[in-house]
Amino acid sequence: MKNWLRKHPQVRTIRVAAADLNGQARGKRIPTRFADKVVEDGTRFPMSVLNLDIWGEDIDDSPLVFESGDRDGVLRPTERGFMPMPWLDAPTALLPIWMFHEDGRPYEGDPRHALRAVLDRFKARGLTPVCAVELEFFLIDDSGRSLQAPLSPRSGKRRKAAETMSIRALDQFDIFFTDLYDACEEMDIPADTAISEAGLGQFEINLMHSDDALRAADDAWLFKMLVKGLARKHGFAASFMAKPYEDYAGSGLHVHFSVLDADGNNVFDNGGPEGTEILRHAVAGCLNAMEGSALVFAPHANSFDRMVPGAHAPTGISWAYENRTSAIRIPSGSPAARRIEHRVSGGDVNPYLMLAAVLGAAINGIEDGAEPPAPITGNAYAADLPQIPTDWQTAIDTFEASAEVARIFSPELIRNFVLTKRQELHYMQELTPSEQVTIYLDTV
């Protein structure tokens, strides 16, 4: 890590940052001359900092604050090391960190550690998940009284309608996307295909698959930070909020995953289109935990505006082969690439919690040898299916009480997340939808 800074002498300051429960980057700015101390000894800040609400306020009844004396955790660098922050004008380096107790134990309220704990369960069975994420986001002009698509840097015109998979729509923002891909190269984020999506000023970029799920979550977290920061540098906003426009589809964050055995074989591949028994167990686990995990997949007030029938977001708990109306989709293609696509999450999720919830549910099903119901065919919105929670309060209560969730997340993380969401629910109820959009636009 120290060598990176020596190779980049133009960098004068660093940011050390960890993801809180909402996926917000929390940390410090440090002069480069003191970077060696951070690398060797870590840094410190209160454990309560990873349990702030969406405004960055303390949780009123959190035991992490006054009850415990607001004690410190020790923040140490992750495996990622230093990387540039191309959206800032001054040369700056980011050092991702995660939290530990004083005695070296992982702090269970840290979302990155929550994912690590799930991966330990796979490792104990000689299994390794391979994950890829698809991130949808909106480019937005928020300079006026209402949100609208930004002016094209090429034509000076404003996009007035959805242009699904339009090359012209991509080309209108070619300078931004070229800078974005260059920045991804600098930060070692594996950005792949970009498309124009079905919303107003909406785009999607896929990140390449990785057999290190922690790295895949890092990539998604860093990518969201990069896109939002770089858009501001170009004079407009980028947002991963679930539903900025009432009349257009919202943004999802879909994850594809397969599982390798100790010999590197895909345990979902049986040589045919249907997949293996282990695939069915994983699907069953995902379905069984879906109701309880809804708060992870839809963590904000605005999240539930996306989850309505016929709006390209799943509402029923189901699985299917090659069917994008279902919550769980088994894509077609080469049997060697047989995988599960989990389609429930909005773009506003914390990637660490989302991957922990998805993979944790899958390993629950694999451990139990669970069997799913028959896959559906046709339009899932028209089928009689058990439903994903459609309101925030129900999602909070269901998450807190879910036996499946209790197998995935630690009691401390469940408690902290529930307290956070109840506080946010209380204050968001006092705001209009447009005021809520203003809050979520830059934060999620």
UniProtKB/TrEMBL annotation:
Keyword line: ATP-binding, Ligase, Magnesium, Nitrogen fixation, Nucleotide-binding
Cofactor list: Mg(2+)
Recorded superkingdom: Bacteria
InterPro entries: Gln_synt_N, Gln_synt_N_sf, Gln_synth/guanido_kin_cat_dom, Gln_synth_cat_dom, Gln_synth_gly_rich_site
Residues spanning the signal sequence: none
Protein family: Belongs to the glutamine synthetase family.
Protein known as: Glutamine synthetase
